[in-house]
Amino acid sequence: MSENIEVLYSENRKFPPPEDFAAQSKVPKDIYEKATANPLECWANEARKLHWHKPFTEILDWSNPPFARWFHDGEINVTYNCLDRHVIAGNGDRVAFYWEGEPGDTRTVTYKELLSEVSQASNLLISLGVTEGDRVAIYMPAIPEAVVAMLACARIGAIHSVVFGGFSAESLKSRINDAEAKLVITADGTYRKGKVLPLKPIVDEAVAQTPSVEKVLVVRRAGNDIDWAAGRDLWWHEEISSMDTTHTAKGFPAEQPLYILYTSGTTGTPKGILHSTGGYLTQVSTTHRTVFDLKPDSDIFWCTADIGWVTGHSYVVYGPLANGTTQLLYEGTPDTPHQGRWWELIEKYGVTILYTAPTAIRTFMKLGRQIPAQFDLSSLRLLGSVGEPINPEAWLWYREVIGAGKTPIVDTWWQTETGAIMVSPIPALTDAKPGSAQIPFPGISIDVVDESGSTVGKNQGGLLVAREPWPSMLRGIWGNPERFKETYWSMFGDKYFAGDGAKFDEDGDIWLLGRVDDVLNVSGHRLSTTEIESSLVAHDFVAEAAVVGASDETTGQAVVAFVILKSRHEQKISEAESVHELKAHVAKQIGSLARPRDIHLVDELPKTRSGKIMRRLLRDVAEKRAIGDTTTLADADAIKRIDEKLN
Ligand code: PRX
């Protein structure tokens, strides 16, 4: 910890909005009062800032909980709101994206150009037989065509399912099959750490086992050699060039599904979180405008999330474009070709708002302040954080080193399921507190309760819930309404259970305390312990496996697995080889983000008398802590033997 940061930390200070920041902000000062007095009317007013093909008359229909309908008798086209509206208003020449590829190639795309390309892509999708309600899988790098593909689906009422490019063929296959996607849009490859990372071969492997897929559209990005299935595969650039550059967007009912995004839950099968249009667009645009204090005509917004995650959906594509924002989109990794690449990009494009994850900040902290110090970061006026709790030390470093000691920080709590920001400071109004996400967004009703559903007292840990429906809430789990009810609503009946622990402090500010279920958060990405365990047990070597999330200085949590090998394998292969093989197996099955940091080979696992593995005790071992209460163990010595072997 640097001396300065230590001083700031020890003072346990709050950081009031800088005077000049507060003075320039257009966020209304009475925003909380108004929302408290009449939350539904406030959401309706926000919704009316969008273009409706047919205005709504009912704000919320909550007659069949937990299935909400927002603005349901209105008709809206999401893409029209993200593009046409701005061009019609005379802002067609405004830059929508400054795009930079990892090798340093660049593209600048204005709103007018984006509209023209999205119109062509919409016409192409239609010509391929994609119609309203059809599912389209998108497996793409961070290139403008990925955004074009999403907006084209939205424009014609098709439902996209973006799968993060780091997922394996196996994961892609199961997601395509669950959604029964008709079309896959991908690229030949992308650039990662200075090398070409092929994507098309992964798609080829996946679609060999996806009967619903009729065509694969391929964007040429990296120029790598790829296999070609004649009749199935089509080049994006060849197909699109003959398409009309105009397409008339029609309105769809506000509850028309917009996308499915798979996320890990507590079981082995990922959940297809379903979002719809009117309410979603209302909340992503409102939160983007307010939390990021947006000035669309002067800000350059950079959200570093990949479009394969919800943050990329809500704060690269839909929120910012609905607000007519100019953004930076970067294809590659932060450390290629040098460790200052991000800061170089901020200087080059004059980025004013940076939205990233604590794991990135901690990585930069480790590299040292001398790297960002080489660049001019004075354009930055606001910093954001998302994906996991940000420790106060990282928060203070972020503000001091990246934000020149004065830039406000917004720590935003939300989830794939919530669709948009739910808890966050408002930078012009809130005295910021390092480490706390602080205050529910105006119009959002958040509480921290005990297991019986009663609000807990200050500084007592509890469970985070939403008491009232919100516009961008998930509308369900694709194909599984029962799982939707069971996962989020069965615990309290009338409240949404987020799966996070939280507390209120003495000022009533909210602190997030991490997941309370079997979900891990590695570098802000969600993984399920059960999914990784199933993958391990599926390997021929493995008799039993237990996976826990152990705290990790950089990634927040890391995957740590305890594995019992089948005895016949122990003789043939060394421990080191087994561990290596199993790590590679998980990466191949799920994706490299799930690769365990540590695999410990053990002879037994701590179990209760009813046979349930006590992961809590394994977490103690993984984190090298004193072992907790072992009274419910069938064999209390089992965990001691594991601890002795490993620590
Ligand atoms: O545990 C919370 C954590 O990330 C989970 C949601 O993950 P995902 O659906 O992948 O969405 C991530 C991006 C919105 C939450 O249940 N989380 C997210 N933001 C924060 C956070 N934990 C603490 N503070 C945050 N700001």
Plain-language structure description:
This protein has 647 residues and is α/β, with parallel strands linked by helices. Among the domains are: 69 residues, Luciferase, Domain 3 (Luciferase, domain 3, Roll), CATH 2.30.38.10; 124 residues, ANL, C-terminal domain (GMP Synthetase, Chain A, domain 3), CATH 3.30.300. It is built from 21 helices and 30 strands. Strands 12-11-8-6-7-14-15-23 form an 8-stranded mixed β-sheet, with helices on both faces. Strands 5-4-17-16-18-19-20 form a 7-stranded mixed β-sheet, sandwiched between helices. A 4-stranded antiparallel β-sheet has the order 21-22-24-25. A hairpin with a 2-residue loop joins β26 and β27. α5 runs antiparallel to α6, α5 crosses α7 and α11 packs across α12. The mean pLDDT is 94. Bound molecules: adenosine-5'-monophosphate-propyl ester.
